Amino acid sequence: MASASISIGLKGQRQTLVCDHNVAGHVGKFSTPSMIQLMEQAASAATNGHLEEGQVSVGIEVNIRHLAGADIGSTIIPHAELIEIDRNRLTFKVEAYDADTKIGDGTHKRAIIIPRG
């Protein structure tokens, strides 16, 4: 079950600079795996401070479109917004921008778990 403080509309954001280590080498543009990782981090950030002690959220599904390229030196900002809660599963709408250009969008699902240790 999701924590009582988790509610529809929670938002998270991250930011990164496109550089040699996060581009697709053959085209020199921001890579799809890097964009997805950043979107997951934005969704995770939305839950910061809202999980109960001992709980963590883990990614369980991504459905992402990479819509446009971004050059080295660009600043990428992904946004995540919680749009659905189903027991311990959270669905986020995610979008990534290079300035005013949307470079990716989709959904990302996370599950709230208590790790065994």
Characterize the structure shown:
The protein is mainly beta and 117 residues long. It has one domain (11-113): Hotdog Thioesterase (Thiol Ester Dehydrase, Chain A). The protein is 14% helix and 47% strand. It is built from 1 helix and 8 strands; from the N terminus they run ββββαββββ. The strands form 2 sheets. Strands 1, 2, 5, 6, 7 and 8 form a 6-stranded antiparallel sheet that branches. A two-stranded antiparallel ribbon has the order 3-4. The model has no long low-confidence stretch (mean pLDDT 96).
At the first level of CATH, the class is: Alpha Beta
CATH topology (fold) name: Thiol Ester Dehydrase, Chain A
CA distance, first residue to last residue: 20 Å
- The secondary-structure element order is EEEEHEEEE
**CATH evolutionary superfamily:** Hotdog Thioesterase
Work out the count of structural domains: 1
* Mean pLDDT over all positions: 96
Helix content: 10-25%
Largest sheet: 6 strands, antiparallel
**Radius of gyration from the CA trace?**
15 Å
- What's the quaternary structure here? single chain
What are the low-pLDDT stretches, counting only 5+ consecutive residues below 50?
A: none
Identify the notable features of this structure and list them briefly.
two-stranded antiparallel ribbon; mainly beta; 8 strands; 1 helix; 117 residues; Thiol Ester Dehydrase, Chain A
